[in-house]
Automatic annotation (TrEMBL), chains A, B:
Localization per Swiss-Prot or TrEMBL: Membrane
Protein name: Amino acid transporter
Signal peptide: none
PANTHER family linked: POTASSIUM TRANSPORTER KIMA
Membrane topology according to the record: Multi-pass membrane protein
Membrane among keywords: yes
Organism: Streptomyces kronopolitis
Keyword terms: Membrane, Transmembrane, Transmembrane helix
Pfam family, one: AA_permease_2
The keyword Iron is annotated on this UniProt entry: no
Lineage of source species: Bacteria, Bacillati, Actinomycetota, Actinomycetes, Kitasatosporales
Amino acid sequence: MVGRPLDSARLGETLLPKRLALPIFCSDPLSSVAYATEEILLVVGLGGVALLSLTWYAAAAIVLVLVVVVASYRQTCYAYPGGGGAYIVSARNLGRNAALTAASALLVDYVLTVAVSVVSGVAAITSAIPSLGGHDVALSVGFVALLALMNLRGVRESGRVFAVPTYGFVFFVYLMFGCAAVRMATGATLRAESADLPLHAASGYTGLALVLLGMRAFASGCTALTGVEAISNGVPAFRRPKSRNAATTLLVMGIFSVTMFSGITVLAMVYDVHVAAQPTDLGLPPDTAMPTALAQIARTSFGGADTLFYLLQAFTAGVLILAANTAFNGFPMLASILAEDRYLPRQLRNRGDRLVFSNGIILLALAAIGLIILFDAQLTRLIQLYIIGVFVSFTLSQTGMVRHWRSELATPGLPRRERHRHRRSQAINACGAVLTGVVLVIVLLTKFVHGAWIVVIAMPLLFTGMRSVHRHYRRVERELAAAPGARPWEPAGSHVMVLVNALDAPALKALGYARAMRPTTLDALTVAVDPDEVRALHAQWDAHGIDVPLQVLSSPYRDYTRPVLDHVQDVCRRHPGGAVTVVLPEHLVSRWWEQPLHNQSALRLRARLLFGPGVNVVNVPYRLSDGEPGDR
Amino acid sequence: MVGRPLDSARLGETLLPKRLALPIFCSDPLSSVAYATEEILLVVGLGGVALLSLTWYAAAAIVLVLVVVVASYRQTCYAYPGGGGAYIVSARNLGRNAALTAASALLVDYVLTVAVSVVSGVAAITSAIPSLGGHDVALSVGFVALLALMNLRGVRESGRVFAVPTYGFVFFVYLMFGCAAVRMATGATLRAESADLPLHAASGYTGLALVLLGMRAFASGCTALTGVEAISNGVPAFRRPKSRNAATTLLVMGIFSVTMFSGITVLAMVYDVHVAAQPTDLGLPPDTAMPTALAQIARTSFGGADTLFYLLQAFTAGVLILAANTAFNGFPMLASILAEDRYLPRQLRNRGDRLVFSNGIILLALAAIGLIILFDAQLTRLIQLYIIGVFVSFTLSQTGMVRHWRSELATPGLPRRERHRHRRSQAINACGAVLTGVVLVIVLLTKFVHGAWIVVIAMPLLFTGMRSVHRHYRRVERELAAAPGARPWEPAGSHVMVLVNALDAPALKALGYARAMRPTTLDALTVAVDPDEVRALHAQWDAHGIDVPLQVLSSPYRDYTRPVLDHVQDVCRRHPGGAVTVVLPEHLVSRWWEQPLHNQSALRLRARLLFGPGVNVVNVPYRLSDGEPGDR
């Protein structure tokens, strides 16, 4: 299903050229222009038609932040060619707690990226095909599962899959701008289908309330900034020269992002697009299917060219759903680094058969599916949890970079030109740190009561969880370490017990195996639930002339486990320093679906023996259909 | 949660006096009078007001069948004091296939009894408290879970719990009859609240269609007969003289059932109760909450005495929900008998800590909950699947009894009085067999397209499933049996391999343990995923002066399992007839929730070693926090 296993030596072959790296790492920030404008309009629309002009200010601020953040992260690409995600940069420059804070923030936001992008991609699909409406949860979950499968196959194949919708989306957005420009130049008056709908709005947004509304609109539009981190995190996946290629890709992404976001916002304002959370706020009957802002703009711009409209919607859906892929690259890689540093379970550390971090991919998919189901695939509710994490990690990462350059500048004998370049980088990062810090405060203030509190609780939980995991691994490592010069154990005597229910072929095999261990003492144990069975067992014992003594344990409560545990515990007490072993004969059926037909009590007993008295347990398998005693 | 474990010796104490046996075994047939009349009215109502008089014929036929079936089963109680369920009677007299057919039928119907009774009990509750409507699924599932818990506690406690609602229900139904009689005698004209509602009905029920409608009404009302089987099945649970007490209880139940069913039906006809599947069929707006027929009758009979009405509704709900308990007695007991005869997995055979068949109880609860969720707790849909199974087992059981008496009569030297009594019993059972057979055909014909086909598919599936299980157990038993005079295995040499990742304390303990087994050959195995780790391991090996040779297995695909399996398979091939053992050092953390933090690869490897090459596997546990090497 996920392809043949790949040899470790082929890891080098999967390095990415720029033209494939762009769609893989940048589908998230590029695609978010599909809904960023709409999110601004939704908030300012709360103040009525009169306040729509606030959009201009919010959009301008977002463009400014976007430019600064892209410039900042370009510095990171050069400084950390081995991959400079917020976690690594914070760890190297700000210490462990800052790094774990950044990591918690990023893990939460990767999950939200998947959920938000996929849900909004599904919204693009239902805008074009209204009959699919109502199946949002099923469609979203299906797409997340599909993405997980593709990523389990490996990174190179996915790069090719992602190139088409990303470049297609960029192309059709620019084509839409071109169409709009030509039609407006030829004197057409273009209006959105919702232009004449009233906006039922609460009045009285003046003074502080007006400022807060503007800030909230800005905060909602900041979704356009998510995923910029991905490139700096993924520098090692680029072809050589890695840093330069990564920085260039980041620049190209920035240019695309800024122009597309600005263009869409301008067209939304020119066409008078009106949007609202509920159809009733626009004076429409409830249950009316409302097309997205981008869908309205596209329909108006392309005029009668329905084919172009449907193509743009298709590419929008494609790029949005694939934007979730940024997280499918970032999350498992970050989880693997955290597991390597022993902050997350070690299962997340290893690459699977196909050279990808399989467990991280599965974990991310499950978490995103959980969120989608929990929030009923409603974009407006999910978006409230989004971006907090991104700006926490932005701020920490940029602050870390300022420190990085300071220590670089402290290197003695640095050439003047280097020194000059480092200072410039430091200034850019300082600017980024301050700006993203301010945005973080704004986002927190305006989104907290609307759902962001969930993230504000989840992040510290993750943080303390990772610290506990780390403490646990440190303690285990200390306790497992062999003392210097320690020798293998030399047990004082070996005491073996064979557990039998009947003297059948598996029991005969197990008794023989136990005798071959040449133990100091050897007993057979049986539990007396049914006195008839015990009598039959004694008779068989005599008939076969078995010289191993048979101990009968009584069980008034028809329980097999307790009497055995008590007896074994007793043997342990009588032989301190000795090796106590319980031998369990086990008959194996040849087909797995037959196994539940056989009593699982042996499996339960084994776990209880290991975890309880902590004795050694031997499983002597006897295979049916193709096995006989004396097999191996 | 389910009480302290009980000693096997206390099994005798749980025998039931008649006054407790009645509510335990008879709540099902008694409670079904709460909905049997309504089911008849629902069907005849399809033909409009004119056809309501068909109810008289259907009800009379049902009373006749009920009398005959009760009389028949009283013979069974005497003939089989050890418990004469349809399965046992069919097995002894009609052979294995008939017995398994009866068993499949009963298993299916026990599940349906739980689902139908609980759902209709919830309907009684929502009839009295309409604000609970809409939560039917949750309420039903909750009650099934509650019943399962009570039954897991044991049969004696449950007997007391069930006495109150069963006797309360019987008392209040008779009180209702009394009130109605007194008020009618004093000249009051009593009419149901729905008496004047029109019945929107398809016209044209004449000739064959009319006959079919009557038969369908009869078939629907036959739900009153379910559960009669329970007493004959449960004879061993009665106090001595078991057979006579069981037969008497059955007679009392029959008298209660016939009088209550007749009374309710008469009142429904006198009051002109109109019911329909949809509110719109009665000219009511959709979403109108419709009270049950019994609720309407009770409200009319009690007049203004609201307290009495609510008490009756409460006891109705109680007895209906507890009726499901009949199945919680019957299903696990039947499953245990089938498991004893090796037609079902052996886990169903054993009594648990509290002397009840815990696994059977849990299985029944899960199946019923599944049905309730699948059918959205809609009584009208569930009832279509019901009764087929009951009449299959009735017919088989009565036919078996006819054969039973024939063989009894063939006993030479039987006294004349005995012979006379046997002949009478045989005649009664023959009458029962013919009548229930005819009813089975009617039920199949009239219910098949309305949902009964599901049961018609499920029963043969269960039948073939049980036969496959039986074949499997027979084969395994043959293969497990030791040859006469067989001796324990004497392996030709012992070849032990210790799997290590690092030379830590668990590895030192395992190496020492393996050496104490005094094997012919002893090796340490490690898998080379990371060359650095292998180098470090070699260095440790030298530092500690370990004289066990270290074998390094290469793994290009970063997989630990495959190389080990291949190597072990190879060792097995080189030493035929020898005992090959793999020793797995295992470190155990002291808290269970810490376990997932450690690689589960050892567990996976163990299963693969046992099921794959079939070698012996030793787990040498090393406990952290409180363990050291040389522990035991």
